[in-house]
Amino acid sequence: MGRFIVRRVIQMVLVMFAVSVLTFLIFNVIPNSDPAVRMSGRQASESTIEAIREEWGFNDSLPQQYITTMEKVITGDLKSQFTQLSVGKEIVKGLPRTFSLAIGAALLWMFVAICFGLYSAVKAGKFADRFLTIIALIGISMPVFWIGALANYYLGFKLGWFPNGGYVEFTEDPIDWFYHLILPWTVLAILFIGFYSRVLRSNVLDTINEDYVRTARAKGLGERQIMIRHVLRNSMIPIVTLWGLDFGAVLGGGAILTETVFDLQGVGQYTAEAIGQLDVPPVLAVTMFSAFFIVLLNAVVDILYAYLDPRIRLQ
């Protein structure tokens, strides 16, 4: 297991290096135009463009430009071209909000999806299974921004059951923090609940007829013990993989629409505002930030994958 972890960490470092090179090329080389002009915004003076070119080393060779750009990303020495605020500080400021949204929604969609998927598999072909299938398909089909807008308007504004957007720091009032995040958690989780429950149901139905499950029944093990220790554990392997990738994507700004609808002012909303202003430094930093979380969580998931299925360690 130790060798597998070391090998996976080395792979993670190499992937991050490849992602950093691709990101640099996409932002600075592939557009085939002066990056200083793009970063300076509309109607910038020649002196401003020249200052940006000097600051980012755009007159240097490509390898040196790459090193300069990555140094700025890693050290947090990036400033918005419009607000002149530190990009690193703005990301750190939005991180607690994005983490709060992502962690709560991820736990919610994983728990509910396991319950729905397992129950649907046990009741396969019956009314409960068909009903949960319809609910899952409805959840998968509805856009997040539409659900969020409806929930925010009717449950927040019209009925007043929940706050109409906004965010409260956990350190200020934990109860109010939880209360403000109930709707965002639910809205973000709906799509994943439908998809994960369908995948888990399919996996359980495939696993339940395996030889080792029949052997466990022949040994006299209880049905609940068989479902949890044998069927569910093996059926969860692809679910864990999906969860890690989706969670990393949400942390890296994948919850842009949810954050915007509920005005959470997290990393996703910060990215959306930067894209709207064509502000390159924040977009560059958030792209690397997103890639880091996705690659990191993918490595963690692979390690969990190997724990659940020891055969993976031999690959």
Describe this structure in words.
This protein has 315 residues and is mainly α. The chain has two domains: 2-75, no CATH class; 87-276, MetI-like (MetI-like fold, Orthogonal Bundle). It is 77% helix and 0% strand. It has 13 helices and no strands. It has helices at residues 2-29, 35-40, 46-56, 62-75, 87-122, 127-141, 144-158, 174-207, 211-218, 223-254, 256-261, 267-276, 280-308. Helix 1 (2-29) packs antiparallel against helix 13 (280-308). The longest helix is centred in the N-terminal third of the chain and has 36 residues, at 87-122. The N and C termini lie close together (11 Å).
Topology, please?
Layout: H1 2-29, H2 35-40, H3 46-56, H4 62-75, H5 87-122, H6 127-141, H7 144-158, H8 174-207, H9 211-218, H10 223-254, H11 256-261, H12 267-276, H13 280-308
Helix pairs in contact: 1-13, 5-6, 5-8, 5-10, 6-8, 7-8, 8-10, 9-10, 10-12, 10-13, 12-13
Short account of what is shown:
This protein is mainly alpha-helical. It contains 13 helices and no strands.
Keywords:
mainly alpha, MetI-like fold, 315 residues, single chain, 13 helices
Strand residue percentage: under 5%
Radius of gyration: 23 Å
Name of the CATH class of the largest domain: Mainly Alpha
* First-last Cα distance: 11 Å
Q: From the coordinates shown, what is the CATH architecture of the largest domain?
A: Orthogonal Bundle
Shape: globular
